[in-house]
Write a structure and sequence with these properties.
Length: 394
């Protein structure tokens, strides 16, 4: 097992009515003027906005709205938030929403403490994060795990390229996870969130060095099983509290401190690298892009890295209950089960059905590998990436 450091400082308040902890938690971290970040306004329709602001008002905590944060948040939304924060002398950021809102809040938190442009602070930029405003989240959609990690993804201005911002300062101070807040999330977004969480686990599972990480692998398998079990329950009954609760907690656990990839060789997260380009070009829901890519990526990787057939076979048996004794056969059956799960939760069948043009596949492969090969179990270069996109097309 490789050396690693593990750090997750976020406090979680999980369950019904946990919004009652909001104001005291903000005050614990010195908050007195809150930038309230949220998206398109659904929280005003479902009552969550009132629940949040009533708690703030009761505690005499001032707040100013930063609304309209879009999915796959563009840097323009981040810059707007930085401006509002500074103009109103805020001292705390509260993100109420899903991954896009929380990701934007993290970039705002870093940006308000930096004199230059926030894009400098993205991975590969020339800026450095030396401080960040305190932030917290009230989660309204499960999937990304941003409520319990230190990273975010922001869409840049040039070619809508996805950029990562990451630093331990960007962990939320606390996150409130009330499964009832996800009851009204539309089916498409609920199921996309389920696959997003599953894919985080897949990205952590299929990584070189997995032969030495029994604890991480076995914990990961259990969380994957919980998603596969509970996603169809949410699909059948969106107000199934326990199913929503298990999905919400599984999504948070999938990325918490990158615990399931700890001790492995490291990964460039190939499926996410490809999925981000689909989101950039077609403004596609993140989890949907992963559902489209994952089966083809896994099958291609199995072919290119047959020395890891045992890992794919373990996955098939321990996650999907495949009983086949032959490793090679079991491995292929397990990958087929991933596709079956995506179909079961109503993800698009292929890239063509999702509206992707075949003529764009080479461009997508080029952009996905613009900063180097996408390595996990093996190197995935531009040609490999193009082949994966082609297999995912039909």
């Amino acid at each position: 097992m490789e050396n690693f450091s593990f750090y997750v400082p976020t406090t979680i308040h999980f369950g019904k009515g946990q919004i009652e902890n909001l104001s005291s938690s903000i005050k614990q971290f010195g908050g007195s003027k809150v930038l309230l970040a949220y998206g398109g306004g659904s929280i005003k329709k479902n009552g969550i906005y009132d629940a949040v602001t009533n708690e703030l008002k009761k505690a005499d905590i001032d707040f100013v709205d930063c609304d309209g944060i879009k999915p796959n948040p563009p840097v323009s939304d981040v810059r707007k938030g930085i401006q509002i924060y500074r103009e109103n002398s805020c001292d705390f950021i509260l993100a109420v929403g899903g991954g896009s809102t929380i990701d934007a809040a993290k970039a705002i938190a870093a940006g308000v403490c930096y004199d230059g442009d926030v894009m400098d602070l993205m991975a590969g930029g020339h800026g450095e994060i030396n401080a960040a405003a305190p932030l917290a989240s009230v989660l309204t959609m499960a999937g990304t795990g941003s409520e319990l990690d230190m990273g975010g993804v922001i869409t840049g201005e040039k070619n809508h390229k996805k950029h990562t911002i990451m630093h331990p300062f960007l962990y939320p101070k606390f996150s409130i996870l009330d499964p009832t807040y996800t009851f009204s999330v539309p089916e498409k977004h609920s199921m996309a969130g389920c696959f997003d969480a599953l894919d985080h686990l897949l990205e952590c599972y299929f990584v070189a060095g997995s032969e030495t990480t029994d604890v991480q692998n076995m914990m990961n398998e259990g969380v994957m099983r919980s998603i596969i079990k509970n996603a169809p329950k949410v699909l059948a009954n969106p107000e199934d509290y326990d199913a929503r609760a298990n999905i919400m907690w599984a999504s948070s656990m999938a990325l918490a401190g990158f615990q399931f990839v700890a001790g492995k060789k490291g990964s460039k997260w190939p499926m996410h690298g490809m999925g981000h380009e689909l989101s950039s070009l077609y403004d596609m829901t993140h989890g949907v892009t992963l559902a489209l890519i994952a089966p083809s990526y896994l099958a291609y990787t199995l072919e290119k890295a047959p020395q890891y057939t045992w890992l794919f076979a373990n996955f098939a048996r321990n996650v999907f209950g495949v009983s086949e004794a032959d490793d090679a056969t079991a491995a292929k059956l397990g990958i087929g089960k991933v596709k079956e799960f995506a179909d079961r939760i109503n993800m698009p069948k292929n890239l063509k059905e999702a509206g992707v043009e075949e003529s764009k596949l080479e461009y997508l492969a080029e952009k996905a590998t613009e900063w180097g090969s996408l390595t996990a179990l093996c190197e995935i270069n531009k040609d490999d990436t193009l082949e994966i996109f082609r297999r995912a097309f039909n």
